[in-house]
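Morning. Coffee machine broken again, so started the prediction first thing and wrote up yesterday's gels while waiting. Chain of 122 residues, entered below exactly as on the submission form.
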Amino acid sequence: MELLMEKPRTAHQPQTAHHDVASRWFRVCALADLEDSWGEAALINGQQVALFRVGEHDVFAVSHADPATRSHVMARGMVGSRGNTHTIASPLHKEVYSLATGSALAVPSCSWAPTRCALSTA
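Came back before lunch.
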């Protein structure tokens, strides 16, 4: 299986038309290349992204930039959970974020949007 990621958009880029969907996805790596509960950084379309595999088939992708400091360190954060929510703790200030939604669990104003990713058998 391979990991596919949707091309990250900046705030300045408009939503891409539906007929251009295939050009928005990038092959990143084989699923086997990602270790369980360990972060990896990737450069996708000029943007740094942190990838996290949690369990056998769950993969999350978020900005590699810490939402509070903008330092590119999130792939080195600590993967964990709060209840049924997979989380990542920033290695700088230990702020905890949901991997699925990007929301900060303690300070909701300090959040980011996750990047969509999908698994492909092609």
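The longest strand covers residues 47-54. Going to sketch it on the whiteboard this afternoon.
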